[in-house]
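Researcher: We're teaching a course module on how sequence relates to structure. For the next exercise, students receive a sequence and then see the predicted structure as tokens, so they can try to spot secondary structure elements on their own. Here is the exercise chain.
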Amino acid sequence: MSGTDDFGYLEKLARDLGAVDAKVIPADRVFVEDRVVLKCRSGCVGYGKKLTCPPHAPTPAEFRKILGEYGHVMLVKFRSPASASGDVVRSIYKYWLDPAAPGDKKREASKFWADYFEYSKTMHGIMLELEKAAFNRGNTFALALVNGSCRLCEKCNVENGICLHPTQARIPEHAVGINMKKTAEQAGMGLKFPVEGHPEPMAVLLID
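Model: And here is the predicted structure for the students to work with:
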């Protein structure tokens, strides 16, 4: 099985494509926890509405078995252009979704998410490029896990159970139970919570 040094080309490519950092680690250093998907159930507006999200995505138990068949993964960190004041960030969903939220706070939260979602398209494209690069180097089961729920369609075809963009749609890493904060910290790529300044979302590439 290849060592992490053999994937330096992927780390370099990630940075060249726009990531702020990338690091290949052994797959057994990824933390998969059942509690992570509770965040999907309690508060996420996309729960049950997208084929790449719970309850349609693999469960943490299923993903642990899948992850066990991989030797390495790459953590990829980005920097989003989105930003908001500290008090808005700490209650971002409230100000975004609550009809009674103050108008200025709602506008700031809405602008934050608009910028974040727009940049998510860039992140998605970069992860697909990295997946392709690994595949073309012989890692035939390379697969990207993206940050955030899928936004390829205005409305997911979840009612019919058939993805309209199967070659592009990818599962979010948290949807399968990956604790990105703990995984990133253990890899020396810590994440700040609550967000300060611009968010630094992360994605995962399953390599071999």
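Model: If you want an answer key for the exercise: The CA atoms of residues 29 and 183 lie 7 Å apart. The first strand starts at residue 21 and ends at 26.
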